[in-house]
Amino acid sequence: MVEIGDSLGVDLGEAMQSTWPPASVQLTMAARGDTGLANSGYYDWPSQLAGLLTRTHPQVVVVLLGANDLQSMVTGAAVLYDGTPAWNAEYAARVTSIVSESVHAGARVLWVGEPAMETAFLNAGMSRIDDIAQRVIARYPGRAAYLDSNSVLAPGGSFSFDVTGPTGRQVQVRTPDGVHLMPAGADLLAAVAGRALARNWGMHVTGP
Fold first, then answer.
1. What is the Cα–Cα distance from 79 to 177, expressed in whole angstroms?
2. How far is it, in rounded angstroms, from Cα 20 to Cα 202?
């Protein structure tokens, strides 16, 4: 299994490494902070993923990307401005490249949506990016699935630093910056990711 993403992807990947039994899954955690799909000149995820797919031949690619992508994109001589229809279409094409590349290599894709954010601007942007990703994933039934991270990090879709944990007690799931995940939040997200793999493809990475 390969996990890619931005700094929230690092949070998730580290939780997957620490909470998923090594005997259950061989995990290559390749998420990298400050990356995304908008600025391919800084970090080209499709090219990086191609190498990972060739080297590891994963059954599943877990993706958590988007938090750094509210910026203009350059395609050839054109500059596409964030929030415009042209930007949305190009971003969908870049999500598609990640999914199709993985599927054509024989892997399934679990796309984890970015959670609600504290600031209104970033929150609205993540909601738009998550909607784009969901529409792309829907074109790959059986081969790709979308996981709404708000199901555990922001029940009801509203940002919160704390949520009710499995034991009924409040746990802090977000860091003071209103963006990243506390270890408890990352662990909760890793747990639902594991359940999503079992539900969609019968892959039990966290036990029966």
1. 30
2. 15
